[in-house]
Amino acid sequence: MVRVAFLGPFGTYSHQAALQQFPSENTTFIPQNTISDCFAQLSSDDSIEYAVVPLENSTNGQVVFTYDLLRDALVESQDSETSLTTSNIEIVAEQYVSIDLCLIAPAEIDLFSSDRPKIGRVYSHPQVWGQAAQYLKKLEEKVGPLDKVDASSTSGALKLCCDSYRNNTEFMDLAIAGRAAAAAHGGIIIDAPINDKKGNTTRFLVLARKSLNRVLLQPLPPVDGEQQKITLIAFTAEPDKPGSLVDVLTVFKEHGLNMCSIASRPFHPQVNNGKTTPTNSQQELQHKWQYIFFVEICDREENDWNSISRYIAELTCSYRIWGTFYRSGGYYK
Ligand SMILES: O=C(O)C(=O)Cc1ccccc1
Fold this sequence. Notes:
CATH topology of the largest domain: D-Maltodextrin-Binding Protein, domain 2
Shape: elongated
Distance between the termini: 31 Å
Number of helices: 10
Enzyme class: lyase
GO biological process, one term: L-phenylalanine biosynthetic process
Bound molecules: 3-phenylpyruvic acid
CATH class of the largest domain: Alpha Beta
Domain ACT: 233-329
Number of domains: 2
Pathway: Amino-acid biosynthesis; L-phenylalanine biosynthesis; phenylpyruvate from prephenate: step 1/1
GO cellular component, one term: cytoplasm
CATH architecture of the largest domain: 3-Layer(aba) Sandwich
Radius of gyration: 22 Å
């Protein structure tokens, strides 16, 4: 029995991505409350083999919660004394899910009737607000101002609305989630699709716990993908050193590696490994505006990452190869 953690509850898009990656019957899906819990559970609970988390959306860009967890693992693993909570995790596959957002109510409602319950809030995952901004603006022109309330996931948002409506039917909160969430919690879809852009797609990572011998995990066989492989590398370059980033990217060029994406997130290196309060001068050293970079290399050939890593190690302050995995067919849809 394969056990897979995912951003829950049932009915999230992460749940759908997990079902796409693990279609077989002998899989148990274990919903987690947050993306951070997915990382932590995979890392600490030996009974869980995989975790599925959202990485980026074609309309709204990075799911920063996930990128920051990939970053924090790098910081943590730099300090040998902290618990290597997530340094035993690797990326072994990716999945793409088409995001057809729906406006969902906990019960039948005519939004435009005069005697409907009071509506004041709409709940969803923070990634959604940028994917349905235009729709929500038009909706507010019809039903009045709506508080947009962040929830830990789209399906979790609908569960919140259904639970609160059961306790008080005078007020009704709405949620933006997928059809699977409506089915999971008995919500009523009152408008769909409501995403501003057609083809709105979210990319998910499938994570696995590295075996103790610390070799790069084998990627999962492509469920429906190409033979092209992706390697995700996180690294920090020397701050305030002209050309330090270019020097690292030049390693990829000189090895004929095709870089297919680059992203960055704020990075605050721990001074003294976070053990003691940094002195003023050390704090000055810790510039506010430092970044960690995430690069993806797309290739069909096998690359000798052991030797390439030596070049990267020489030119970076810290780096981590997060794994090599097959390009999923969903990338091309
Ligand atoms: O909340 C979910 O359903 C997720 O899986 C995260 C997410 C949120 C919004 C769009 C895509 C994925």
